[in-house]
Amino acid sequence: MSARMLVVHRRPPYGTSHAQDAMEAVLASAALGVEVAVAFVDDGVWQIVAGQHPGDTGLKDFVPAFRLLPELDVGPIWVERESLQRRGIGARQLLLPAQVIGARALARRLDLYPVVIEL
Amino acid sequence: MSTPAGSPRTLGLVVLSGPYQHQSADTALRFVRAALARGHRVSRVFFYADGVHVANRLAVVPADDRDLQRAWSTLASEHGVDLAVCVAAALRRGVIDAAEAARHGRDADNLAPGFRITGLGALAEMVRDADRVVVLGGGG
């Protein structure tokens, strides 16, 4: 029996619905009492770069949902250091307080979650 | 896990990608059959994102190809596997049952037998109750 889940955001915020699908799964699961952690890796780190206005493109504005995560007790919120570095993104550019973590350390954390959903 | 290797487990599955373009619905089907054959319990299969298209009974598949919707419906009727389709993902893709069609003023419904439309709560519940959850698809 486990009520713990890690949702890995791996895809860019635009071009597919993956970012939105992942966020909806996070919000609903957290609201229903599942202990949800999230990790942003690869192009998924673009999802939490500040200064985005998805609404300008006619898409649903996902930014407010990200800001809600800490209030909904979602955590830890990890962002992979190497993914940020490769893209020239600094931790201060992120729109939510995420814990910057190295790839190896993050891989060890993955083992702690019986359910990992990657979108 | 305290359960010894090889003993029966309760499994849950998540299907994230659409049928035919992606093979996650094929793989999930074979996985469920294999698990049941080995005596495991499959508590639920949760269809999310484009995975919900599997539940469209209006899909017409050429005779020389596999009919995924029919295969899943058969699995549900023969083994009682709960096929849960995410309501938010399904409705925006036009996968709809009679009740939702009536509620939203649509003139038809297309949910295949053996599937049921439900909320993301069914995913949370499955995560809580299953010994293992296998996630197929996504990321493509």
**What is the domain total for the residues of chain B?**
1
Order of helices and strands of chain A: EHEHEHEHE
Count of structural domains of chain A: 1
Helix content of chain A: 25-40%
Query: What level of helicity do the residues of chain B show?
Result: 25-40%
What's a quick, concise take on this entry?
The complex is a heterodimer of chains A (119) and B (140). Chain A has 119 residues and is an alpha/beta fold.
What does this structure look like?
The complex is a heterodimer of chains A (119) and B (140). Chain A has one domain: 3-Layer(aba) Sandwich (Hypothetical Protein Ychn, Chain: A). In chain A, 29% of the residues lie in helices and 19% in strands. Chain A has helices at 18-31, 63-68, 81-86, 103-110, and strands at 4-9, 35-40, 77-80, 99-101, 115-118. In chain A, helix 2 (63-68) links the parallel strand 2 (35-40) and strand 3. With 140 residues, chain B is α/β, with parallel strands linked by helices. Chain B contains five helices and five strands; from the N terminus they run βαβαβααβαβ. Chain B has a five-stranded parallel sheet, with helices on both faces. The mean pLDDT of chain B is 93.
